[in-house]
Structure formats: C-alpha cells, structure tokens
Design goal:
There is one protein chain. By secondary structure, the protein is mainly α. It has one domain. It is built from 13 helices and no strands. Helix 3 crosses helix 10 and helix 11 packs across helix 12. The longest helix has 71 residues. This is Peptidoglycan/LPS O-acetylase OafA/YrhL.
Length: 408
C-alpha cells in the first residue's frame, strides 16, 4: 500500500488482520505449554521437545507488543472520531463488560479441567493443596489480563490527550510528538524503545528471562516492566495514527527489522538458556543486564517487522482474513479452558508432539469458530463484541466501513 493510501484513511486491512492473528496465535502459544522440556503448565504431556518451547518463544516475542501497537493506533483513531464520551462508552461496553462477564465462566472452565485432569491421575480432593487466599494483589486475571491492561492504557490515552488539547494551544507539543514518531522509524527505533524496557526488565525482581515481558495475569496492578513494555508499544501506535505516512516507512524498513529481530532474538534466547530454557529467575546482575538489553531490542524489532509484513502482504481486502479478525476476539476469550481440555485428551496418546499440538489447535479452533458462527456473529453478542451484527442472509456485501477501531 502506498503512503498516499495510508494518508487517505483507507481501511488498514493489514493491521486489522495482524490484530486478529495476534489473538489467534494465543491458541498455538498456550497449546505449546504442555510440551515444554520441563513441566511448567497445569497439563503435562508425555511428549516434550525444545522445539515446542522455541515455538512459544518466537510467538511470545512479538505477539502482544504488536497487538498493543495496533490497539493504540485504532484507539486513538476512535477517540478522535467519537469524542471522549463516545470513546469511553464504547470501551466500557466492548472491553470492560466482556472482562466482567466472561472472567467467571472462564475461571470455572479452568477449574473444571483441573478437577477432571486430577481425577484421571487418581487424585482426590484430599490430595489437593489448600486453596490460596486471593486479594487485589494476586487475583488471577487468566489470559483476559490484556483487557484489564487495555483499560489502563485507554484511561492514560484519554487523560493525556485532554491535557495536550488544554495545555498545548499552539500545537508545539503535538508537533514535537510527530517529529519524535518520525525519528523512531528506522533500525535505531528498536534500540531507543528497547532501552527503557531493558531497564524495567533488569529492575524486575524474579525476572525469568525466557518469558521476556512478564505477563501481568495476577493482581490488579500490572508489573512495571509490563506497563513499560506494552505501554511503549501502545504509545507508538497512538503516534502512528497521528503520522499515518510512517506506516509506509515501516514497510520499507521491514527487511532490516527482520534481521535485527533475528539477531537480537537469537541472542535473547541463548542468554535465557538456549535450546533448553532456564525457567528460574536470573540472579547475576551482568547476565541479567545483557539478557534484558537483548529482549528490549528483539521485542520492538520483531514488532515492527510483523507490522511491516502485514502492511506489505495483507494490505488488500480478504473475506477470510476479515472473518477471522472478527472471530478472533471471541475465540481468544473462550480458548484457554478448551485448550487445556484438549491437552488433557491427547496427553497420553502415542503420537509425536507436533501432531498432538495440531489436534489441540485445530480442535479448539473448530469448536470456537462453530460457537462464534452459531452463537455470536449473527446475534446480539456479535453487536456487543464486534460492534455490529451480521445478518444470516444478505442481499449484497456490506461496504467495508471503518469498524477496525472497535475490535482490538
């Protein structure tokens, strides 16, 4: 797509597709956990491989940073179009309400799978450890943590934009932000963005390097390193919505970003244990600093790389990509208990782990897509989650209006 096309406000099919892909890759990501060389997951399989942990590493490196960049871009676009009141209302309906509505059923599903798996191994309630005591510091947000963190970032966006509008009457701050955004596009961008993330990771107590940015899935206050790492990506997305012309430059720099991501990512992997990852906190300050620096660069280089690839190869309209992008929100919400249940089913099968993983992913996707088509897409839940309800039968295709801001 040309720079003029970006400037004209055409629908960003590539970023819309990448947002959906980032959510759908969560199914693969969580599916690999039962095949790690050392058991870290609730369900352990009898087939393990360093390739499974390697696949997890690659996906985890770019997935959520890319998602938050796109969320920042689409969120800023929506805020400009709908105004503060309309934006807040939409985000409460589309983000806060699903978190409140689905957290309980998701937790119940996870607990049900845990009980089922324990019973298959001959364990009873008497064998279970005492239940933990939960409060605001350790409440399990599960994989829905991204909705909670999005609310933090949306609040910061609303407050920050209001302050800029009120205090920057002459537009100097806005022009400075635009120049800063332009200065971050190039091979030096991941180094500049990676520096504060590296510092935050180095300061993170009990940081397990293999997992990069810690997942803030427990407690109502996210870890500082997660706020820094994902917040920088979200903020970069906001700046890119102000400077749509920079998307073409990102696309042009894609080969360089790929090379930088490969080099820094390989270094980060080796510093975190290599083929057999070390899943314990780093204790040596010097080694921790090197690993944090490598992860800082690798995170944003890979983020820019996949954004560039999406802009390059997914810029045109695709009915399949659009459908999957629409379905991805629902699939991500419901997938984790389904993945765990599928892992329990295949854990004792006499098959190699790639086949088991494929069965888990294909099975979960089939069930999730069927439920989306039958229960969500064409009804009120479709309007709730996707911002629109698609009729069962349409006489003609619906024009591709800009719904993309409502789906992150």
């Amino acid at each position: 797509m040309t720079a003029s096309a970006f400037d004209q406000g055409e629908r960003l099919h590539g970023l819309d597709g990448l947002r959906g892909a980032a959510l759908l890759l969560g199914v693969v990501l969580h599916g690999t956990l039962s095949f790690f060389p050392s058991q870290i997951w609730i369900v352990g399989d009898d087939q393990t491989s360093v390739w499974a942990s390697g696949l997890f590493f690659v996906i985890h490196l770019f997935r959520m940073a890319s998602f938050f960049l796109i969320a920042g871009l689409f969120g800023h676009m929506m805020l400009k179009r709908r105004g503060t009141a309309g934006f807040i209302r939409n985000r409460l309906i589309r983000i806060a309400a699903p978190l409140a509505a689905f957290w309980g059923p998701v937790m119940a599903g996870i607990v049900a799978v845990l009980v089922w798996n324990a019973s298959l191994h001959g364990l009873t309630a008497a064998d279970a450890p005492p239940p933990p005591t939960y409060d605001w510091t350790n409440i399990p947000l599960t994989h829905l943590w991204f909705l909670w963190v999005l609310l933090w970032f949306y609040a910061a966006l609303v407050i920050g934009r209001a302050l800029v509008i009120r205090l920057d009457r002459a537009g100097a701050v806005g022009r400075g932000l635009d120049r800063m955004a332009g200065g971050l596009i190039g091979p030096w961008g991941p180094l500049v963005l990676g520096a504060p993330l590296a510092l935050a990771l180095w300061l993170e107590p009990n940081w397990i390097a293999f997992f990069g940015i810690p997942t803030p899935d427990a407690g109502l206050v996210p870890e500082a390193s997660a706020l820094v790492g994902f917040g920088l990506a979200f903020g970069m997305g906001v700046l890119l919505d102000r400077r749509r012309d920079l998307l073409a430059k990102i696309e042009g720099w894609t080969p360089v970003y790929l090379g930088l991501a490969l080099g820094a990512g390989t270094t980060a992997l080796m510093l975190s244990g290599g083929p057999t990852p070390v899943l314990t906190p780093m204790t040596d300050p010097a080694a921790k600093a090197l690993a944090a620096a490598a992860f800082g660069v690798a995170t944003y280089a890979s983020m820019f790389a996949v954004v560039g690839l999406a802009l390059r190869f997914w810029s045109g309209h695709s009915a399949v990509r659009r459908y999957l992008a629409d379905a991805s929100y629902w699939i991500y919400i419901v997938h984790l208990p389904l993945v765990m249940a599928a892992q329990v089913v295949v854990q004792d099968w006499a098959m190699v782990w790639p086949i088991k993983l494929a069965v888990v992913v294909v099975g979960v996707m089939a069930v999730s897509l069927a439920s989306y088509e039958l229960m969500v897409r064409h009804g009120m839940m479709g309007r709730w989650l996707n911002g629109r309800r698609v009729p069962w039968r349409r006489a003609r295709p619906v024009a591709p209006v800009a719904h993309q801001a409502a789906a992150e």
